[in-house]
Design brief:
The structure holds two protein chains of two kinds. Chain A is built from no helices and eleven strands. Chain A is mainly β. Chain B is about 0% helix and about 55% strand. The chains are: A mainly beta, B mainly beta. Chains A and B meet through strand 5, strand 9 and strand 10 of A and strand 4, strand 5 and strand 9 of B.
Chain lengths: ~120, ~110
């Protein structure tokens, strides 16, 4: 089954304790992206990656890091989480290639609470 | 700068009614306009999409209307059902370079009441 998986689905942590949210896709997609979803603010892009070893900032990258060492994986790293990073996080992937109708496939989400 | 403006933020419709969600954009390079549907506890999923060379696209009870000159597009849900209760995001992206980058509206939470 074609899918994007994220782990963990739920996480409660404390300020300053480093954490990683994993994302994996099995569709051989070049493009992967991380979003955060907050009430009234919609989906805001954190980072994205066009391919292995190619990453770029989205609209709200502060406080986050990413890496793309393998095509299928795109982990999101919070080195020193703060309460304002409490949010619902989504990973997404799609093909790349000129045509605009590249559907983005989203993971099930990770709800993060930073105390 | 919000490039895709979506309204309303929330919408309550009675079962059997028509739900209408509107979006407007400024960037004339946008060439594809998808709508994503998100159920509680799930990630968004593509619902329906339109290219600007047509003014309307219909899939079952869901219709996109597109007005290129006004740079506006809307989602109509006919005969709305409680199972349609979800958050809907309009989006846009360009052709060519950057076609993979979706710009999302802020979302509309639709509640269909029996």
């Amino acid at each position: 089954e074609a899918q994007v998986t994220q782990n963990p689905r739920y996480l409660i942590t404390v300020t300053g304790k480093k954490l990683t949210v994993t994302c994996s896709q099995n569709m051989n997609h070049e493009y992967m992206s991380w979003y955060r979803q907050d009430p009234g603010l919609g989906l805001r892009q954190i980072y994205y990656s066009m391919n292995v070893e190619v990453t770029d900032k989205g609209d709200v990258p502060e406080g986050y890091k990413v890496s793309r060492k393998e095509k299928r994986n795109f982990p999101l790293i919070l080195e020193s989480p703060s309460p304002n990073q409490t949010s619902l996080y989504f990973c997404a992937s799609s093909r790349v290639g000129g045509r605009p109708d590249n559907e983005q496939f989203f993971g099930p989400g990770t709800r993060l609470t930073v105390l | 700068q919000q490039q895709v403006k979506q309204s309303p933020q929330s919408l309550i419709v009675q079962k059997g009614g028509i739900s209408i969600i509107n979006c407007a954009y400024e960037n004339t390079a946008f060439d594809y306009f998808p709508w994503y549907q998100q159920f509680p506890g799930k990630g968004p999923a593509l619902l329906i999409a339109i290219r600007p060379d047509v003014s309307e696209k219909k899939e079952g009870r869901f219709t996109i209307s597109f007005n290129k000159s006004a740079k506006q597009f809307s989602l109509h849900i006919m005969d709305s059902q409680p199972g349609d209760s979800a958050t809907y995001f309009c989006a846009a992206n360009p052709s060519g370079a950057g076609s993979y980058q979706l710009t999302f509206g802020k979302g509309t939470k639709l509640s269909v009441i029996p």
